[in-house]
Write a structure and sequence with these properties.
By secondary structure, the protein is α+β, with helices and mostly antiparallel strands. The chain has helices spanning 9-48, 96-114, 153-159, 172-176, 231-234, 243-255, 291-299, 318-326, 338-350, 352-366, 378-414; strands at residues 59-60, 63-64, 67-71, 83-91, 124-136, 141-152, 192-199, 204-210, 221-222, 225-228, 262-272, 277-286, 308-315. The strands form 4 sheets. The chain has a 5-stranded mixed sheet with strand order 3-11-12-7-10. Strands 4-6-5 form a 3-stranded mixed sheet. Helix 8 packs across helix 10 and helix 9 crosses helix 10.
């Protein structure tokens, strides 16, 4: 039997068919393997999600704030003895044009006072020059040093006009904040406020709504107690102020709770990047007072009760705090400090891992940003594309099967099975 016999007649036809089937099977298996790999990659990609975008300010789910946390994570409090405050002799100097704005404010407030209207007096305050952070000992306990200069309330009001055009067309924001909030000159930092999250003995959290009569962020939901650093109230002669005592003063004046009735811990130093306001976030744990005790005591009077138009008590649990932060009536009416403050308080009490896990679960339930479609889960997305992928896969396999048959016929022709026998 010679080789030519395989290229003619029945033998050639059989050989061509076998070659076609083998090629079709090889191509079909390779295609299935490739599609299986693509499916695995799609599932893994959906499960992993998109890479996070860079955000420096605090955010929780879709709730974005303008609060930048400079130091502190809630896990390790900054002890009172680890906080140093230095006060420079010189006063924070305003640019000439901004001095004119300050004089406008002074005239307006004097007129309002003369007319018996609500007005603000020019109380002595401080401007922040800078913050130095270090670690101490083997445990790396955080230490901070806050440098201050003298300022006043009208300077604060003038520099809060961050987007007011200046004579050269620039603004305070574009001129002095383009390199970041920490690099701003002292006169741009004429505010330092303390905010306290009060946790009661029966594990309740106090939340407050600021009065509409306040000069900064009126009418928003905020911390349990808020107090600004004051040169007249917080400095004993030439002694630098103690920011722990500033927070204690706020708790006393707004909630009527004495310093001996709770334990106070500093959780973070912050900057509100929208208004360039520095601050400190504290948590206070009441020794014996319950939520109802605080409401009852405040009803009998507090020195600065007017600064908050409303006080509420909620459960101090991760689920309830997240629900409160994300509630439709509040989520767009929080001060920038409140969400990070309450979150850090949860971390301080429950630990970071537990708080992260429970808040992630709570966000899936309560995070309903108005006008924002929820991102489908990886499983839902995979199920939605699985059927079309199967149809595409089946169509491609059928195409390759047809191609295999064509290859089979071509192989038969090449081996001579489709030519007439020329031996005669």
């Amino acid at each position: 039997m010679n080789l030519n016999s395989f290229s003619t007649g029945l033998a050639g036809l059989i050989l061509g068919a076998v070659l076609g089937v083998v090629c079709s099977a090889l191509l079909e298996d390779a295609l299935k393997d490739r599609l299986r790999l693509v499916g695995i990659l799609i599932r893994h990609s959906l499960a992993r999600g998109t890479l996070p975008t860079r955000r420096t300010e605090f955010h929780l789910g879709t709730l974005q704030t303008s609060m930048l946390i400079l130091e502190g994570d809630g896990v390790t409090p900054i002890n009172e003895e680890s906080v140093r405050v230095l006060v420079d002799d010189e006063k924070a100097a305003l640019p000439d044009e901004v001095k004119g704005w300050k004089e406008e404010i002074a005239r307006t407030q004097a007129e309002r006072k003369e007319n018996g209207e609500q007005h603000f007096w020019n109380g002595p305050s401080y401007a922040v020059v800078g913050l130095a952070v270090s670690r101490e000992g083997i445990s790396e306990t955080p230490e901070i040093c806050l440098r201050l200069q003298s300022s006043d309330y009208y300077a604060f009001q003038a520099t809060q006009q961050l987007d007011r055009p200046m004579m050269d067309g620039t603004t305070l924001r574009t001129r002095y904040l383009s390199n970041g909030p920490e690099a701003a000159p002292a006169f741009m930092n004429c505010s330092f406020g303390t905010n306290v999250a009060m946790v009661t003995k029966d594990h309740k959290l106090v939340i407050a709504k600021r009065s509409l009569a306040l000069g900064s962020r009126p009418g928003v939901w905020n911390s349990s107690a808020n107090e600004a650093l004051s040169r007249s109230l917080d400095s004993d002669g030439r002694t630098p102020p103690n920011i722990y005592n500033v927070a204690r003063r706020g708790v006393d004046e707004e909630l009527a709770i004495g310093r001996e009735e709770y334990r106070l811990e500093l959780l973070a130093i912050t900057i509100d990047t929208e208004l360039q306001q520095w601050g400190a976030a504290f948590v206070a744990y009441a020794h014996d007072l319950t939520g109802q005790d605080i409401l009852a005591r405040r009803s009998r009077g507090a020195p600065d009760k007017w600064e908050n138009e409303r006080i509420e008590i909620i459960d101090f649990t991760v689920d309830e705090v997240v629900r409160c932060l994300m509630s439709p009536e509040r989520r767009d009416n929080w001060s920038p400090m409140a969400p990070p403050l309450y979150y850090l308080a949860l971390v301080n009490f429950y630990g970071r891992g537990f708080t992260e896990r429970r808040s992630a679960r709570a966000l899936r339930i309560y995070d309903r940003s108005p006008g924002l479609k929820r991102r489908p889960s990886a499983l839902m997305t995979y199920r939605s594309v699985r059927a079309p992928l199967r149809k595409i896969s089946k169509g491609i396999v059928q195409t390759y099967q047809v191609a295999g048959k064509i290859l089979s016929s071509a192989a038969a022709l090449l081996t001579g099975s489709g030519r007439p026998d020329n031996d005669e």
